[in-house]
Structures are given as structure tokens and as C-alpha cells.
Write a structure and sequence with these properties.
Blueprint (H helix, E strand, L loop, with lengths): L1 H54 L2 E15 L12 E14 L6 E11 L18 E16 L2 E8 L35 E9 L3 E9 L11 E11 L2 E14 L9 E15 L2 E10 L6 E12 L7 E11 L1 H6 L12 E11 L4 E11 L10 E11 L1
Antiparallel strand pairs: 1-2, 1-16, 2-3, 3-4, 4-5, 5-6, 6-7, 7-8, 8-9, 9-10, 10-11, 11-12, 12-13, 13-14, 14-15, 15-16
Length: about 400
């Protein structure tokens, strides 16, 4: 009888053991799958953190500027072919990355554009289209690193010298304010093109002092073999800002009298702007440079801007400027010929910026220039223009 029940018992135990082993394997597989899922979740979480860290503090901006201008009054003896109409465009893709824990900022400006504008046909000292880029190009116009330690701000890389020096609240941006070069920056500063540079500023709430050293040729060949350096001090009292600067450019310059090809240039200047009411501001600039190498010895400009006349974000600007020629230019010209009747160039500009939408601004612009490029015999010149600014 014992044998009768032994065989079924053994068989039942075997089945039970097999079921237990199968269940144990399933549990181990389930546990393994759980661990794998946990690891994947951890890796995904770390990946997400790395991606978030990468994009934290990242700002991208894309903008485009189109300008159409036409002259009236340009005579054949002065301009290449009398009155002209011309256009230019530019696009800027700006990348700004601000690092956490006070590790500074990296800035890149990729600029694409085409067109000399009217300046390629009708010469003036000041230039009537400050946004024209010349021949078709795609360039990293700026690449720099900046950091602030206590009250010191440092910048190094490929830098636009006008981004830190000779600033002005209402006369410093050709895409939203005045188009004439004499109202964007001081005509009597011999700024180099964007190039290798190092800049440092000490900044208090109402006071700052800064200095910059730039490659004088504005390229990366023989960097700093010839330099442009500038130092500036600024002071703010409520809504009044004033700046004073001295600069030297020791790159080779041709003397206007033909006596040398290795002269240097230097000068100093002032810039101020002030709010006189909630909707009105004024500005002024003065500069002087070496008349031995520069046609314009003194530059004076000033103007006013009114805002919110018809719509929030609009602006009406008016400016006048005087480019005073030096004795050497009057006696010898600038190498391309001596003017028969050399006189100071005087420029007037008025614009009205109207925001069509949050992203688009249309700006009609009129300029009037007397004695363009110091040519006293040249007819007075009107430049009619329109600018479209799009911020994506």
C-alpha cells in the first residue's frame, strides 16, 4: 500500500518543485526588468538634466533689416551717375549662453547681408546707410566671452568696439534709430573693424571707467602688431548720462599731404543723452582727431527723440551734425583729389519709427546733406529712405 501512494507523491512533489522553480525564475526576471527600468529612468533623468543644463540660460534671437534709399540732387560731377536708388539687407542670428554659478556669458552674432546702399554711389563723410554690409557675406561678426567679478566686467574675443564705447541711448542703433553714420557713432573716432580684443570695465551704480585694446587692422593677421586702444569714463545722474573718452590708433595711416604712409591717429570725444520728459530725450556728441591723416578734424552732432506719439513703441527722431574739415584736407584733399571749394559737411536727418506689430517696424527716413564729402561745389543732397525691421 505504501508503494501505491509513493509514486504519485513523488510525481506531485516534482510538479510542485518545477512550479516553484518556474515562479522563482519569473520573479527573478521581473526583478531584473524592474532594475533595468530603474536604471533607464535614472539615465533618462540624468540625460534630461544634462539637456536642461545645456539649454538653461540660452537665448536665441533672429532679426532682419531691409533698407531702400533714393537720392535727389546728386549731380553727375559729384556722384558716379547722378541720382541713385539702392537697397541693402542684413540678418543677425544672435546666440547668448549665460552659465550658472557666475561662470560668465558667451555671445555669438552670425551676420549675413548684401548691398553697399547709396554709399557705394554717392560719397559723404558720414555715410547715409549705417546698416549696409557691402558685398554678399556671411560672417561671425562677434564671438566673445564676458564675465563679471565683483565690480569688474571683462570681455575677450572678437568684439565690436562700438558695443562698449561711445554708447548713446537714442543715437547708437542703425536698425531702430538714425541711419546716418554720424548719428550712430562719433565721426571723429577712428574705430577699427570688429576683431581680436580685450575689454575691462570697473562699474559703480552711477560711475564707470573702462578700457579696451583692439587689433588695429580689424583682422586676425599679425594680431595686435598694430593696435587701437581707448579708455572711457562715464557718469549718470538720474536720467542724464555723460561719457568722455580718449583713443589712439597706431595702424598705418597715409598723411593727407603725402609725406608719410605710417602716421598714427588719435583723438578724444564726449557723448551725452538725457530724458527731458517721459516721452522726450536729447543727445549730443563731440569729437576731435588728427587733421594730418583724417579729413574730418572735428565732429559735432545732436538731436532729439519723441516717443509714443501715436502708438506705444513708436518714435520720432531729429538730428543735425557738422563734420568740420581740417586744414590739411582743405589744402591737399584725401588722396583722391583736392576739392575745388572744400567746405564742412552738414547733415540733417528725421525719421519716424512705427511698430506695425510686435515683430515688425517700418521707418520712413529723410536726410539732407550740404557739401557732401566736403565738396563745396556739389549740390545739396536729399536722401529718401524706408527701413523695415523684423524681429523673429
Amino acid at each position: 500500500m505504501f508503494k501505491k501512494y509513493l509514486l504519485p507523491g513523488v510525481l506531485a512533489f516534482g510538479v510542485y518543485a518545477q512550479d516553484a522553480e518556474t515562479k522563482s525564475q519569473e520573479d527573478r526576471i521581473a526583478e531584473l526588468e524592474k532594475r533595468i527600468a530603474t536604471l533607464e529612468e535614472s539615465e533618462n533623468s540624468e540625460t534630461r538634466k544634462n539637456i536642461d543644463r545645456l539649454f538653461a540660460g540660452l537665448e536665441l534671437n533672429l532679426s532682419g533689416t531691409g533698407i531702400l534709399q533714393a537720392t535727389s540732387g546728386a549731380d553727375d560731377d559729384y556722384a558716379d551717375s547722378g541720382d541713385e536708388a539702392d537697397a541693402s539687407y542684413s540678418f543677425d542670428f544672435e546666440i547668448t549662453k549665460t552659465f550658472e554659478d557666475g561662470l560668465g556669458t558667451i555671445y555669438i552674432d552670425l551676420e549675413m547681408g548684401n548691398g553697399d546702399g547709396i554709399d557705394g554711389e554717392v560719397p559723404t563723410f558720414s555715410g547715409v546707410n549705417g546698416d549696409a554690409t557691402g558685398d554678399e557675406s556671411l560672417d561671425a561678426s562677434e564671438i566673445w566671452y564676458e564675465n563679471t567679478i565683483d565690480k569688474f566686467r571683462f570681455k575677450i574675443g572678437k568684439v565690436d568696439p562700438t558695443g562698449d564705447f561711445d554708447a548713446n541711448t537714442i543715437a547708437n542703433d542703425e536698425t531702430t534709430q538714425f541711419l546716418n553714420g554720424g548719428f550712430i557713432n562719433n565721426l571723429a573716432i577712428d574705430f577699427p573693424d570688429n576683431g581680436a580684443a580685450a575689454v575691462v570695465f570697473y562699474e559703480e551704480e552711477e560711475f564707470y571707467i573702462g578700457a579696451g585694446i583692439f587689433d588695429g587692422d580689424g583682422d586676425f593677421d599679425d594680431v595686435f602688431s598694430k593696435i587701437f586702444w581707448i579708455t572711457e569714463v562715464g557718469y549718470t545722474v538720474e536720467s542724464f548720462n555723460i561719457r568722455a573718452y580718449y583713443w589712439e590708433n597706431n595702424s598705418d595711416h597715409d598723411a593727407l599731404d603725402g609725406s608719410s604712409t605710417t602716421d598714427e591717429n588719435s583723438g578724444f570725444g564726449l557723448s551725452f543723452d538725457a530724458e527731458v520728459s517721459e516721452t522726450a530725450s536729447v543727445f549730443g556728441r563731440y569729437g576731435m582727431q588728427d587733421e594730418d591723416v583724417a579729413p574730418v578734424e572735428h565732429a559735432i552732432s545732436g538731436g532729439v527723440q519723441f516717443s509714443e506719439l501715436a502708438k506705444q513703441g513708436d518714435a520720432l527722431g531729429f538730428a543735425a551734425g557738422l563734420a568740420i574739415i581740417g586744414d590739411k584736407f582743405e589744402d591737399f584733399g584725401d588722396g583722391s583729389g583736392k576739392p575745388d571749394d572744400a567746405k564742412d559737411e552738414m547733415t540733417f536727418e528725421v525719421y519716424y519709427r512705427y511698430p506695425v506689430s510686435d515683430n515688425i517696424e517700418i521707418t520712413p527716413d529723410i536726410q539732407y546733406i550740404m557739401n557732401p564729402a566736403g565738396e563745396g561745389d556739389a549740390d545739396d543732397l536729399f536722401v529718401f529712405g524706408i527701413r523695415c525691421q523684423v524681429n523673429f
